[in-house]
Each structure stands twice: as structure tokens, then as C-alpha cells.
UniProtKB/TrEMBL annotation:
Residues 128-177 are annotated as: Disordered. This is Urease accessory protein UreE. One of its GO terms (biological process) is urea metabolic process. Residues 146-177 have a biased composition (Basic and acidic residues). The keyword Cell cycle does not apply. The gene is ureE. It comes from Methylobacterium planeticum. Pfam families: UreE_C, UreE_N. Belongs to the UreE family.
Length: 177
């Protein structure tokens, strides 16, 4: 099977031939090894040396030098807003305390659609409105260049410090699929 062996970041694409595109949600943009099929039908194996975060606009380099464009799929999220910057910062703290992926922008925080967290946000004075858009959460403080998000848990030995208790599930989304 044809293999995709490296990630080419969107600002380094150059003039290589783009032969297909793959539309992936947040979870599938955090992989090392996974069988994939492009929108145009091209089947290939994502086979990276290390787990990587694939960003919207990046490409996967196939063994033969051709590229497959990566597109972030729209996902159902909550757009969390607050009446002031300080109120939004407080909401970010509470969301972070739940160890869930979050995308932080200038005026909102985006998280996966969750009615319990929506109620918490509203109870703290914020708004939580459902939206559908690509999800681009923060990579985490311990990303180390490969996007490790401690909020997602992990099943590898602890070679890096963690500033949070380890009572959350340990299933690493970056493990081989």
C-alpha cells in the first residue's frame, strides 16, 4: 500500500503535486499510523515516524513525492464567551481544570459539544452556543513538537513532568490506530 511518510507544513508546500485531499476531524488529525482514503479515492497508509498534529492546510507527503492536502473537518462545538476579558479568563481556568481539549481565540473558547460543560459555563455567567466549525485545540504545555495533549491521557512511560494529578483515563490518542 502507498504510504504517507511525512507532514509538510502549509507554509512549506512548494510546487509539489497535490493529488487528493483528506478531510479529518480533530481526533484523526492526531495520528501516527492509520489507513486513509482521500476524497478523490486515493487509498494510502499514514505511516509517520512519530505522532504528529496535522493542521488545516498541511499536506502529507507520499513515498513518491506527491502530496495529499489536509483539511480540518467541521465539528459540533460549543463557542464559549463571557461579558468581560476577566470573566472569559475565569471560564478558561474552569475548562482547563476539566482537562479537555480547547481552542482559545481572542473572544471565545471552543470545546467539544457537551451539555454538562455548557451548563457549568452558563452557571458561571458565560454563554455556550453550539456551532459547527473546524476544531483546532491547543497542543498542550508538554507538546514537545508532536502535539501531546496531557488532557487526553497517555499509555507511554512518563518521560516528561505533569502538573496535574493522574486520576484521568490513560488512553493516548496518538498511539498507533
Amino acid at each position: 500500500m502507498l504510504r504517507a511518510i511525512r507532514v509538510v507544513r502549509r507554509d512549506h508546500l512548494g510546487a509539489a503535486e497535490i493529488v487528493d485531499r483528506i478531510v479529518l476531524d480533530h481526533g484523526d488529525r492526531h495520528r501516527r499510523r492509520l489507513a486513509m482514503r482521500g476524497v478523490g479515492g486515493l487509498a494510502f497508509l499514514l505511516d509517520l515516524p512519530e505522532p504528529a498534529i496535522l493542521d488545516d492546510g498541511d499536506a502529507l507527503a507520499l513515498e513518491d513525492g506527491r502530496l495529499v492536502w489536509v483539511e480540518a473537518a467541521p465539528e459540533r462545538l460549543l463557542a464559549i464567551r463571557a461579558p468581560s476579558r476577566l470573566a472569559l479568563q475565569r471560564l478558561i481556568w474552569h475548562i482547563g481544570n476539566r482537562h479537555i481539549p480547547a481552542e482559545i481565540t481572542e473572544d471565545a473558547v471552543y470545546i467539544g459539544d457537551d451539555h454538562v460543560l455548557a451548563a457549568m459555563v452558563r452557571g458561571l455567567g458565560g454563554s455556550a452556543e453550539p456551532v459547527t466549525r473546524p476544531f483546532r485545540p491547543e497542543g498542550g504545555a508538554y507538546a514537545g513538537g508532536h502535539g501531546h495533549d496531557p488532557a487526553q491521557g497517555h499509555d507511554h512511560p512518563h518521560a516528561h513532568p505533569h502538573a496535574h494529578p493522574h486520576d484521568h483515563p490513560h488512553v493516548h490518542p496518538l498511539a498507533d490506530a
